[in-house]
Design brief:
The complex is a heterodimer of chains A (387) and B (112). With 387 residues, chain A is mainly alpha-helical. Helices cover 78% and strands 0% of the residues of chain A. The termini of chain B are far apart. The chains are: A mainly alpha (387), B mainly alpha (112). The interface between A and B is medium-sized, with 27 and 23 residues.
Chain lengths: 387, 112
């Protein structure tokens, strides 16, 4: 009567138990997985329903106090700090996606491509980005509250202030008539929460902290591959951004004209100024990418000091910065088109819209790599699981 | 050992099952069976009791049986005393109600 259940219902229950176990923190995962599988194997023998065992495993996972040190494998202070950092990352990410969509106007501001599937895909992405922004904000606030619950009353005040501030900012975006008062109140509250949160962390350090987790530098071959991948990725962004500025962008702004007609219609000064700004953007960011690659290579060559996390965090931050400035580089050309080639269709090209999203995602990626806590070392958390 | 923050009828049923073991470890599934409580109630309860120090658990040491190991639960010495007091106190509270109304299907939590 041992081993895996053979009947379909038993196999399904075993799958559910496996899923429930997978959702558990690592220190307690294997213990409960094995316990539930043993219970499943013997369930029918003692007159208990295997599906009941499976549901029990799910209920256990859903109701488990994951903050307890014996479950998380970490001191309570470390758990609070990690939750707070994840909360900050989620709120910042939600803010980036939310503000990005709000300021640019989302896909509605982009000129429609001729291919219907592309248009549908981009509009779906646009809707998903809005939903993602709100979801991330909610997750971030929840994480802050969970951290505050483990910390101190002052931390609870911080979480409350952050919640009120974010609620005001979201309300400001949805209620244009009350934009100014909501936005001002929200900003004051969020900045206040940030300052108070810093004071909480600095003045009353929470008990318990995992030992520092030094990371080994990358071996030469892997470091070269990582530097190469990051460099090629950044150069690709510069290249696509340049084509968008010089070709797709002007076409999107002048609905119906060919590229030759656009440039021929511009005055000599407008054309030269517009192209000069774009070339300036290309040169500056190409230099940045080359410098990044050279500096990373030098670091690796001098002392093998390159870590993949830091390398990609800088690359993603650089990518988000170059894409943030990309629309500005097209500003002069766009103004020339608006002044001399009416009717000005406005907006950005679909590729420009995608680049904007890539820039936001890059910034969020940099936040995750730079601010979010790293996974604790296995040996630090596995000790509890072997008890 | 920490006091329990909340004692429910299900807690008492589980404690009664463990008290019946009288110092011997009981398989978690047997606690489910004898308490007639669903696994979704018993698993979290056993976990809470263990973390509070009322119960300790260990893997079954049975080389003759293959497959995943069973987890066995037993009351600690302090846990046995506390469980006896808790069950008695709960029974005393339940007695007047039982006298005034028909007995519930669970009754005193006797094993099935």
């Amino acid at each position: 009567m041992t081993g895996s259940p053979a009947r379909p219902a038993g196999r399904l229950a075993a799958c559910v138990v496996g899923v429930a176990a997978m959702t558990l923190p690592e220190p307690v995962r294997e213990r409960h997985r094995q316990e539930w599988l043993a219970d499943l194997a013997g369930a029918e023998g003692v007159g208990v329903s295997p599906s009941g065992v499976a549901v029990g495993a799910l209920v256990f996972s859903a109701t488990l106090n994951r903050d307890a040190p014996e479950v998380s494998g970490m001191p309570i202070g470390e758990v609070a700090r990690r939750r707070a950092r994840w909360g900050i990352v989620a709120i910042a990410a939600g803010g980036v996606f939310g503000v990005g969509s709000y300021v640019v106007g989302g896909f509605a501001s982009a000129i429609r491509p001729t291919l219907a599937p592309v248009e549908l895909a981009l509009s779906l992405i646009d809707t998903a980005i809005h939903a993602l922004a709100i979801t991330l904000l909610l997750i971030g606030v929840a994480q802050l509250w969970r951290a505050a619950r483990l910390a101190s009353p002052l931390a609870t005040v911080t979480a409350a202030l952050a919640t009120v501030g974010l609620a005001c900012l979201v309300a400001a975006a949805f209620e244009p008539a009350l934009l100014a008062p909501f936005a001002l109140t929200g900003l004051v509250a969020v900045v206040g929460a940030a300052i108070l949160g810093f004071v909480v962390m600095a003045s009353a350090p929470l008990a318990g902290r995992l030992p520092p987790q030094p990371t080994a530098p990358l071996p030469n071959r892997r470091a070269v591959l990582c530097i190469l991948a990051a460099t090629v990725g950044l150069l690709a962004l510069v290249a696509v951004g340049a084509v968008d500025l010089l070709v797709w962008g002007p076409l999107a702004q002048t609905d119906g004209l060919t590229l030759d007609e656009v440039y021929a219609g511009l005055g000599a000064v407008d054309r030269a100024n517009g192209i000069a700004m774009i070339v300036g953007w290309i040169v500056i960011w190409t230099l940045f990418v080359v410098s990044f690659a050279a500096f990373a290579s030098l670091l690796q060559w001098r002392g093998r000091a390159v870590r993949s996390r830091g390398l990609f965090a800088v690359a993603l931050l650089g990518g988000s910065a170059l894409l943030f400035f990309q629309p500005w580089a097209g500003f002069s050309l766009g103004m020339g088109i608006a002044d001399t080639l009416p009717p000005y269709a406005g907006g950005i090209s679909p590729v420009g819209y995608l680049l904007m999203l890539v820039g936001q995602a890059s910034f969020v990626g940099a936040l995750v790599l730079g601010v979010a806590p790293r996974r604790p070392p296995r040996d630090a958390v596995l000790a509890a699981s072997l008890a | 050992m920490q006091p329990l923050s909340r004692v429910t009828p299900a807690t008492v049923d589980v404690l009664e099952c463990l008290l019946e073991g009288a110092g011997t470890a009981t398989w978690g599934l047997q606690v489910i069976k004898r308490s007639s409580r669903p696994p979704g109630t018993v698993y979290p309860l056993l976990d809470r009791l263990e973390r509070a120090g009322w119960v300790r658990s260990h893997w079954e040491d049975d080389d003759a049986r293959s497959g995943p190991r069973r987890r066995l639960y037993a009351l600690t010495a302090d846990g046995t005393e506390a469980a006896s007091r808790t069950v008695a106190a709960f029974g005393a509270r339940r007695a007047p109600a039982s006298a005034a109304a028909p007995a519930s299907p669970r009754g005193s939590g006797a094993p099935a």
